[in-house]
Design brief:
single chain; about 800 residues; alpha+beta; about 20% strand; elongated
């Protein structure tokens, strides 16, 4: 037993020696740190911070300098209101007057987090924060934490708690270049600190944790308000205020002063860059780390954008009560943002001018989503010539309270029968005109045919990520049923400009540390999201000034630029809340939004052509002056189809015994929406939209086609729907030369064709090249002849004939012939 006790005693003694040795080593290390620390006499004039500078893309125009010099007015402890002191203590260090320079539990917790998770936070007392802000660099290491602790101990030995709190409130940053409580009060509330009320004092205390993030002029004003209320709750818990004071302060409206823009260029763009830098490198590094940031901004282009937005919004306010506008310009080939104006006037706090609509605003795009609906349809097999009938149509299918024959006085929310912007209905219109003229009813039909889920996938692939609730949008999506951000829409249109290639949007070209080392640098990130044919088809439509002529009328000149081909799409949301203009060349995309930040509607029918297009034109007319080379869009390959409705034929004429039997039906009569180029549907009425579309068309034809009674009569001998192809007989009964024949330089081609409905088209291909096309329009037996005399005869050659009739039936034959 005695032996065991001696062994335990030795272990205890050894442990004590180890602990004593570690403690001695730690004290020696702290002592060495203290020897190299500055004296307390330097507390008011020594700071190791270096300013972060944000430049335009040239690296020569300084847009903003963060903490370049301190803007501070020192006041005495007695001049600082008790509310300010108590609010700061409540949120930053509630036990300030009771502990020494440090909080041991918090330090242990921080060291643990640093070792395990590589992060340190939550340990600093007010004394430690003062030491850090006055003397130390922004690095986050244990060594710096120990220096911070050593300085805090020195502070506590030399000064009283009141003096330390006064130093702290006069020293700490409340925002970029805003140091101390007096400057913060003057800057944010335009009053001296001694006049701050409880609500304002709690707000300034809430800023201390992350001044940039919680800035009243930044993106997180709602979060600032929540944190202010948290400060008030803590003050109540600590007995600084009573419940009535707490509730009254929470309900007090905060009125912030307007920010000064004396040394602040492109403020919305800069704040977006700063937000990114803070999130990536931390506020302390951005404030003190001496970073050099080269952005993508073209400052010359930015000034043009700011002028266009300011003048255009002023005009809209005078004419349409639309006080605000935003603009984004992007290099389509790189994804780089060249200009960005988030609101009309950043300093206009009364009208939320600091709110960045370009990057934060969720606005209804209106018709600006239509190109992506039509693109999805083209990918599915529809063509630019596809006929869609623009007639009053009820899209709430099989609903007894929503009759197929539209009653526009029926405003039941369960019904959906959209009107066109100009209140007109045009009857038959092809896809390209429907898109270029932004006609609503065909667009809703196209969304149904393309499939809403397919369209949402296209939008997501093109960079629109805000449309996440398909059930809420339904078929209204194509008219602005969802919401999007202007910068995302510009990105999506850039994919069109680049023929299906998406470039990641960027605002920064390079970030260097204070020693000139590169922290990050621009690398083009791109990927192909769709075959180029479909964007080319859309570009061909949106850049055709003749197609958009009837929509823009007297404003057409605002959409045309000398020596440049420009595509354009506009959009207007319901009740004129949002007006859009999105236009592009192959290398530059520009998007403009006009409206009100509070989402109030504009007046006097202020649609996109009146409110957004003039701003867009004013900017682009200047921006294009720097693009000397003429740019044109790639012309798309032609898209063929056998069915008349997909070829642009609204009426199918059957001719039997010299008598014409014209047929006219809506598109669902001829196609299966999921396979438009496939077989004609046997039972088109099975589609839930068929009855409404067909009845709506027939009603419109009765009112607008004088001789409608002669349409849709059944041709004799056809007992079923002649367009289903069930009774259509089409065949090539003879074709020469025969397969395997030898030919000379002149080839006589003959074919016998038999059709019991009108023969629509004959095409002859030689070595896969179309060399002849005819449209006989006959019925019965047709003898086709063609002489090939100007083609190069290879050793082996392909000869093919293709035929189709008006019902959509087709046939073909091929022969391989050899040179003699």
């Amino acid at each position: 037993m005695k032996l065991k006790k001696k062994k335990i005693a030795k272990i205890i003694a050894l442990t004590a020696l180890i602990v004593l040795g570690l403690a001695t080593a730690g004290l020696m290390y702290l002592s060495s740190l203290i020897k190299n620390l500055p004296s307390m006499a330097e507390v008011n004039d020594h700071l190791l911070a270096q300013s972060t500078k944000i430049y335009d893309r040239t690296g020569e125009v300084l847009l903003y300098e963060i903490h370049a010099a301190e803007n501070r007015t020192v006041i005495s402890f007695e001049e600082i209101p008790d509310y300010v002191k108590e609010a700061t203590i409540a949120i930053e260090d509630h036990d300030f007057y009771n502990h020494p320079a440090f909080d041991l539990k918090a330090i242990i917790r921080t060291i643990f987090n640093n070792l395990i998770h590589g992060q340190s936070k939550g340990a600093s007392t007010i004394s430690q924060q003062l030491a850090k802000n006055a003397f130390l660099s922004p690095e986050k290491t244990i060594k710096r934490k120990l220096k911070e602790l050593a300085l805090a101990i020195q502070l506590e030995r030399r000064y009283t708690k009141d003096e330390i709190l006064a130093f702290y409130l006069n020293q700490i940053p409340y925002g970029s270049n805003i140091y101390g409580i007096e400057t913060a009060a003057q800057t944010y509330f335009a009053k001296p600190a001694k006049e701050l009320d409880l609500a304002e004092a709690a707000t300034l205390a809430a800023l201390i944790q992350a001044p940039s993030y919680y800035s009243p002029w930044g993106y997180h004003v709602e979060e600032l308000k929540k944190r202010q209320e948290f400060v008030l709750d803590k003050m109540f818990e600590l007995g600084f205020i009573d419940a009535q004071q707490k509730d009254q302060a929470k309900n007090t409206e905060l009125v912030f002063a307007s920010p000064s823009l004396d040394a602040f260029k492109a403020p919305h763009f800069v704040m977006e860059v700063k937000e990114y830098l803070d999130s990536r490198y931390g506020e302390e590094m951005v404030q003190k780390g001496g970073l050099k940031v080269i952005t993508t901004l073209d400052y010359g282009m930015q000034k043009v954008a700011e002028t266009a937005v300011a003048e255009g919004a002023q005009r809209n306010e005078n004419l349409y009560q639309g006080k605000n506008a935003a603009l984004v310009a992007q290099d389509a080939k790189t994804g780089q943002i060249l200009a960005l104006v988030g609101s009309r006037n950043y300093s206009d706090i009364e009208n939320e001018g600091n709110f960045n609509v370009a990057t934060q605003g969720l606005r209804q795009p209106g018709s600006a989503l239509k190109p992506f609906v039509y693109l999805t349809a083209l990918k599915k097999g529809y063509t630019p010539d596809t006929i869609l009938f623009d007639v009053p149509t009820e899209f709430a299918a099989n609903n007894p309270i929503c009759p197929a024959i539209v009653d526009f006085t029926n405003e039941d929310p369960a019904c959906f029968h959209p009107k066109n912007f100009d209140k007109r209905f045009r009857g038959a219109v092809d896809l390209k005109n429907a898109l270029a003229q932004s006609i609503n009813v065909p667009a809703v039909k196209m969304l149904y045919l393309a499939g809403p889920d397919n369209v949402l996938k296209t939008l997501h692939d093109f960079g629109i990520t805000t449309l996440t609730d398909p059930q809420r949008y339904g078929l209204s999506l194509v008219l602005g049923g969802g919401e999007g951000k202007p910068i995302d829409l510009v990105g999506a249109y850039s994919v069109l400009a680049q023929e299906g290639v998406r470039h990641s949007q960027v605002m920064i070209l390079k970030v260097e540390d204070s020693n000139g080392g590169t922290l990050e640098e621009y690398r083009n990130q791109e990927h192909k999201v769709i075959d180029p044919l479909y964007p080319r088809l859309i570009n061909n439509i949106l850049s055709d000034k003749d197609l958009r002529q009837s929509l823009f009328s007297s404003s057409l000149n605002l959409t045309v630029f000398p020596d440049q081909e420009v595509a354009l799409k506009t959009g207007t949301s319901n009740d004129f809340h949002d007006a859009w203009a999105l236009g592009y060349t192959p290398s530059l995309v520009v998007g403009v939004w006009a409206g009100n930040n509070d989402n109030a509607p504009m007046q006097q029918q202020a649609g996109s052509i009146l409110a957004a297009v003039p701003i867009w034109h004013a900017f682009l007319a200047e921006a294009l002056k720097n693009i000397t080379a003429t740019e044109t869009f790639t012309r798309p390959d032609s898209v063929s189809a056998e069915k008349p409705i997909l070829r642009g034929e609204a009426v199918i004429n059957y001719q039997i015994n010299g008598i014409e039997y014209p047929q006219i039906h809506d598109i669902l009569y001829y196609i299966n929406k999921d396979n438009p180029q496939g077989p004609v549907p046997q039972n088109p009425q099975d589609d839930p939209q068929f009855q409404n579309w067909e009845e709506a068309l027939m009603e419109w034809l009765k009112q607008n086609l004088p001789d409608f009674s002669r349409y849709n009569q059944m041709p004799p001998g056809l007992t079923q729907n002649p367009d289903t192809g069930q009774n259509s007989k089409l065949e090539i009964t003879a074709f020469s030369p025969n397969n395997g024949d030898f030919v000379t330089n002149v080839i006589n081609v003959k074919a016998t064709i038999n059709s019991d409905v009108n023969l629509h088209k004959i095409e002859l291909y030689f070595n896969n090249q179309l060399i002849d096309r005819k449209s006989p329009g006959s019925i019965g037996i047709y003898e086709y002849q063609y002489q090939i005399s100007n083609q190069k005869i290879e050793l082996q050659n392909s000869l093919k004939i293709k035929i189709s009739d008006v019902s959509g039936s087709s046939a073909e034959k091929e022969a391989i012939v050899f040179s003699q």
